Amino acid sequence: MYAAVTPSPKSLIVDLLSTLPRSAEGAMPVRALVSAGDCFGIAENSIRVALARLCAAGTVARDERGRYRLGERTEATRREVSSWKTRHEDLCDWTERRWTGVLTPPRGPRAPRKQATRRQRALLLLGFRRFDANLYLRPDNLAGGTPRTRERLVALDPTACGDGTLITSLSDLDAETEGRALGLWDGDEAVAAYGFSCRRLASSEKHLEGLPRGEAMVETFLVGGQVLRQIALDPLLPEDIVPARERARLVEAMRRYDRLGRACWAGFLGSFDVPHLRTPADVRVADAPLSMAGLSREASTQSTLVPGART
User: Fold this and answer.
1) Mean per-residue pLDDT for 114-130?
2) Same domain, 46 and 105
């Protein structure tokens, strides 16, 4: 029906915990994590080892009841991803054609790899693309403009406020420079990826009918997760580059699929007394997220795996 990579134990744990509310009730017992891992063919020992490492790194925290929740350092990323239903509404007109630029300092040979990965994840989640060696750009069309984008970047990557990174608004680019900037995104590719994902969700909805609960949980986790990654990583480009209606169609299709996924997972999570805000999905918050280009390539190479899908 579909092709998807089984999540790692670390990714599965973080994605499951990211669906929980930020309250005293928003925690999950280890037996629920182990049972979920079993649905994906992940051994209990692998789940427990990954959980111990995530706790040691501060990505996951344990409460007084011995249940687990996400740690504070993951909160900003979780917040960005969990806003998928409404984030496309926070757009402004791009009539002045201003840009937001992030100029990062040169990375030294001994710079920690984790720091570089965190920076790249933050820039990707906010829709930036590399324009030059250390300069990243995006259209300044998000609500709150460059000041708000700066706040979100620092929340995702706190090192950006003290390592010499410059986050500023740019305007009056010459025609050649603006042309190069606009070329950082492929509008036709984005539209094709939206259409592919809509067809994938529709096909999966039909396939879910009559599936055993465990198989339905796995399918909604993997298929829904791929689409949620796409929505979470969407750069929210102006109408000049990508028509907003195609993006809106995908978000609405994912809203319907999310309701189905919640129904598939409700019995399982309820048996462990675990509340959840959305369908557990393979967003891979713990890993470097997929690029939009990667999602588009997937659309072109895997379309034959989804009945009726064409690109």
Assistant:
1) 90
2) no
Claim to verify: residue 108 and residue 70 sit in the same structural domain? no
Closest CA to 185 of 301, 292, 297: 292
pLDDT tens for residues 181-192?
999 999 999 999
**By C-alpha distance, which of 105, 126, 129 is closest to 116?**
105
For the stretch 151-170, pLDDT in tens is 999 999 998 888 889 999 99
CA angle, 71 then 77 then 83, to 5°: 120
Q: To 10 degrees, the CA torsion angle through 113, 119, 122, 128?
A: -120
Q: Which residues pair with 61 in a beta bridge?
A: 69
Q: Which residue has the tokens 């989804």?
A: 306
Based on the fold, state whether residues 160 and 252 are members of the same structural domain: no
Domain assignment of residue 300, yes or no = yes
pTM for this entry:
0.85
Q: Is residue 6 part of a domain?
A: yes
Identify the domain containing residue 168 by its residue range.
98-172
pLDDT in tens, 73-104: 888 888 888 889 998 888 999 988 999 999 99
